[in-house]
Design a protein that fits this description.
Arc Repressor Mutant, subunit A, three-stranded antiparallel beta sheet, 6 strands
Length: 224
């Protein structure tokens, strides 16, 4: 779709603080921090702030707003960092989330990822550094990529940060369902087909064409 969505004029250069960003995401439902080059109509914090280096300028926003449960931080959207409003979160969990036990049972996760998941389940919330000390060498090497993958599947999430300096900064991880159970209870009430229809309708309202390329590359949907 070629029409420019209303949010690009309504919100551009208006987000100046964390409270503004919460209002922005609550209005648009979800956004990335930086723009998605192939899908410029997808809501972006950078556009809303009128900044190019938005992550460098607002580094701790993504941590604080998430750990305070004001917005849900995710790397779902084409692997890019972004946010989902809590109103939309159950719909995204129902449409894109996966069940860890099923993935493990059917052998859909590498052994190293299963090891990481087991440690988080047994010891979480747990900081990345401590997590890696409890892993075998192969799982330790795979941990960073595996955590991103599990995060995108709504299986794990950061619940805090270990510190705010270069030597102390790292994420603290736990099972997403254990940290925000109400969102998962709400997601369980939504059939996947209905959730995906709602997501596509939401995208269309922002002049985003939810074609198969977008759905598979940005939202990681399978079995379209």
């Amino acid at each position: 779709m070629g029409d420019e969505p209303a949010w690009r004029t309504t919100w551009q250069n208006t987000v100046q603080c964390e409270d503004d960003l919460v209002r922005f995401v609550n209005d648009v439902g979800c956004c990335t921090i930086g723009p998605l080059e192939r899908w410029p109509n997808f809501p972006s914090q950078g556009v809303a702030m009128g900044l190019r280096d938005v992550l460098g300028t607002t580094w701790f926003w993504k941590d604080d707003l998430h750990t305070e449960k004001r917005l849900f931080y995710t790397r779902l959207f084409a692997g890019r960092p972004g946010f989902i409003s809590y109103a939309m979160l159950p719909v995204f969990i129902a449409s894109s989330g996966e069940v860890a036990d099923e993935l493990v049972h059917y052998g859909k996760l590498p052994a190293t990822t299963c090891e990481i998941l087991r440690v988080i389940e047994e010891h979480g919330p747990i900081a990345t550094r401590k997590l890696k000390k409890l892993l075998g060498s192969d799982a330790c090497r795979a941990a960073n990529a595996a955590l991103i993958d599990l995060e995108r599947r709504f299986i794990v999430t950061k619940t805090d940060i270990a510190g705010r300096t270069l030597g102390t900064y790292s994420y603290i991880w736990d099972l997403a369902e254990r940290w925000i159970p109400d969102a998962f209870v709400a997601a369980d009430r939504i059939k996947r087909k209905a959730a995906r229809e709602q997501v596509m309708s939401h995208l269309t309202s922002h002049s985003i064409d939810p074609n198969p390329t977008f759905l598979t590359r940005v939202l990681r949907w399978t079995e379209l």
